[in-house]
Specification:
alpha/beta; Rossmann fold; Helicase, Ruva Protein, domain 3; five-stranded parallel β-sheet; 16 strands; 14% strand; globular
């Protein structure tokens, strides 16, 4: 009969510091794990190929090779391996890069024993839940995926988003979704959940901006009977309800500073402590959060903790406004028309060419949410046939061209004079001046500046933080 330890999947620790090797190995073996230790990238790769471990604990700073490169090679050899990246306190950006490259989780030194073991346990739990074969991207008939037609589209922006979701869904990396109201941030979070190994677990959504601040802690972590006035019974919080699944925190930047501290501890320890409870409870939850604000601006203003921002902002996804998605407007409208027609028992043939043209030139200040409301209005108030201009809600069919409607952020400056002030600067200096000027022009909004410069917001965040670090 096999012993419990012998039956556990093997672990591989790649760490060059002898003292840390001994500490980590002692913790793991005391917890009943089989662990092999390598002190270099070469030795680690050799052990990996022979042992085929379920989990690799990898220090990103190794004497003979870059840890990130080694991780990518390990994952190319055995894609279902869960890699836990380990980095020093001053190298958080390296850990973020590792998460984006496929790491399951990361640990920042120094970390406590509970956090260490929790990371390993979560990695093994995720591995045991992996289904056979590939997971389809966002099943359209998934129960609870409300208004799924809002998350379709063949634009380049949406193709990038679907590729990012497919890449990160199965990891434990936190996903931070930004975008204007109505762009489909919750649908994006649902897509991450639906494509993860947690798809059969709960998806719990909590709007941090819609709950009074004095009740938000109870809503997130729960409370015990009698812990405060009005607590007439025990209440399970959203974090506990999401155990084994995904917790979606919408409007995360509206969270009170005191609760931000408790959320950070929750992320570090994977434990929740309801209001009035004396003991914490361990849960296995994947965090996805969203905001329609610029999160880095909230950090600068002191409204959002910087350490929590870096903990959450691992995989950023920016949902573009509908006005920037081109033909996606027609695809979404037609999909919604078909679905709403079935729900209401109507027979619609499609969109009249004049309606298509109007939908394409409308600025859509309410984004996808507004478009879906328009199509539902048409279906409910009309019997069927082709959708014509006279079927559209009042005010939409006679909407002015976008140039006369709500203000739209220009994609190019109105004037483009030659800027002789850039002459004599290095390319890096010129790039920095251009980025800073563009961000300033758009009122400090990183997402808007990124759209104009045709780069991802995460690229600008990384560059700006790098300049700040070098200046300090």
């Amino acid at each position: 009969m096999r012993s419990p330890i012998a039956s556990r999947p093997p672990l591989l620790l790649i760490e060059d510091t002898i003292s840390l090797q001994m500490v980590y190995r002692s913790i793991l073996t005391s917890a009943g794990y089989r662990v092999s230790v390598a002190g270099s990238a070469v030795e680690g790769l050799s052990l990996f190929q022979s042992l085929k471990p379920a989990v690799v604990l990898l220090d990103l700073i190794l004497p003979d090779r870059d840890g990130l490169e080694l991780m990518q090679e390990l994952l190319s050899l055995q894609p279902d391996t869960s890699v836990i990246a380990i980095t020093a306190n001053g190298s958080v950006n390296r850990a973020v890069e590792a998460m984006r490259a496929g790491a399951h989780d990361f640990l920042v030194k120094p970390f406590d024993e509970n956090r260490f073991l929790s990371a390993v346990q979560n990695a093994l739990a995720e591995r045991s839940r992996q289904p056979e074969g590939p997971t389809p991207v966002v099943p359209p008939d998934r129960p609870g995926l409300t208004d799924a037609s809002g998350f379709i589209g063949s634009s380049e922006a949406m193709a990038r988003i679907h590729a990012t979701i497919a890449s990160v869904a199965r990891s434990m990396a936190t996903v931070f979704i930004t975008g204007e109201s109505g762009t489909g941030k919750e649908l994006c979070a649902l897509a991450v959940h639906a494509n993860s190994n947690r798809a059969n677990g709960p998806f719990i959504a909590l709007n941090c901006g819609a709950i009074p601040q004095d009740l938000l802690e109870s809503e997130v972590f729960g409370h015990m009977k009698g812990s405060f006035t009005g607590a007439i019974s025990d209440k399970q919080g959203a974090a506990t309800a999401a155990d084994g699944g995904t917790l979606f925190l919408d409007e995360i930047c509206e969270m009170a500073p005191a609760l931000q501290t408790k959320l950070l501890r929750f992320l570090q320890t994977s434990t929740v402590q309801p209001v009035g409870a004396t003991r914490p409870k361990k849960v296995n939850v994947r965090i996805v959060c969203a905001t329609n604000r610029d999160p880095l601006d909230a950090v600068r203003r002191g409204q959002f903790r910087e350490d929590l921002y870096y903990r959450l902002f691992v995989v950023p996804i920016h949902m573009p406004p509908l006005r920037d998605r081109g033909q996606d407007v027609i695809e979404i409208a037609e999909a919604a028309l078909y679905r709403f027609s079935e729900e209401e028992g109507r027979q619609f043939h499609g969109l009249d060419p004049t309606v298509r043209a109007l939908l394409l030139r409308h600025p859509w200040p309410g984004n996808v949410r507004q478009l879906l409301n328009v199509i539902r209005n048409v279906v409910v108030l009309n019997q069927g046939g082709w959708v014509t201009l006279d079927m559209l809600p009042p005010g939409l069919s006679d909407a002015p061209p976008p140039s006369l409607g709500p203000a739209k952020y220009p994609e190019q400056p109105e004037e483009n004079p030659t800027d002789h002030s850039l002459v004599g600067l290095t390319l890096a200096e010129a790039e920095r001046r251009l980025i800073e000027a563009t961000v300033a022009h758009y009122g400090g909004s990183i997402p808007r500046a990124a759209r104009v410069l045709d780069v991802s917001p995460s690229t600008l965040y990384r560059k700006i933080e790098g300049w700040k670090a070098r200046a300090s």
